[in-house]
Design a protein that fits this description.
This is VOC family protein. The chain has about 120 residues and is an alpha/beta fold. The chain is built from 2 helices and 8 strands; from the N terminus they run βαββββαβββ.
């Protein structure tokens, strides 16, 4: 459904460092810089599907929830460990979330701008 998504952040450099660490276990990496904007993509892809952009006005950026796909449960665990090591607040440790469906395995953290960031695997 989505081609790309951008979120506003207070400090692009700090958020970029956080996402470089947190997305690496999921195959994500910094893939493009366009002025003050920083894009992330998967592997060697030229597609930059996730962007960090500076807030356009003074004040706080609005909270968003982002769920990144993980290839397996080990990747969810690695995402969580990398995100927390990069300074994220732990919201929910890796585990099954049967309230969503029987195989929903996810971890949730809060990024430097207060966004609720999830890594999820849907396979058993």
């Amino acid at each position: 459904m989505f081609d790309h998504l951008a979120i506003q952040v207070q400090d692009v450099a700090a958020s970029s460092a956080f996402y470089e660490a947190a997305l690496a276990p999921l195959g994500g990496k910094r893939s493009k810089e366009f002025g003050d904007f920083v894009g992330f993509g998967l592997g060697t892809s030229e597609h930059h599907s996730f962007w960090l952009v500076p807030t356009s006005e003074d004040g706080q950026a609005r909270e968003v929830h982002l769920a990144f796909a993980a290839a397996d449960r080990t990747a969810v665990d690695a995402f969580y460990a990398a995100a927390v090591a990069a300074g994220a607040e732990s919201l929910h440790t890796p585990g099954l979330r049967p309230e969503y469906h029987a195989s929903y395995y996810a971890a949730f953290v809060r990024d430097p701008d207060g966004n609720n960031i999830e890594a999820v695997c849907h396979t058993p």
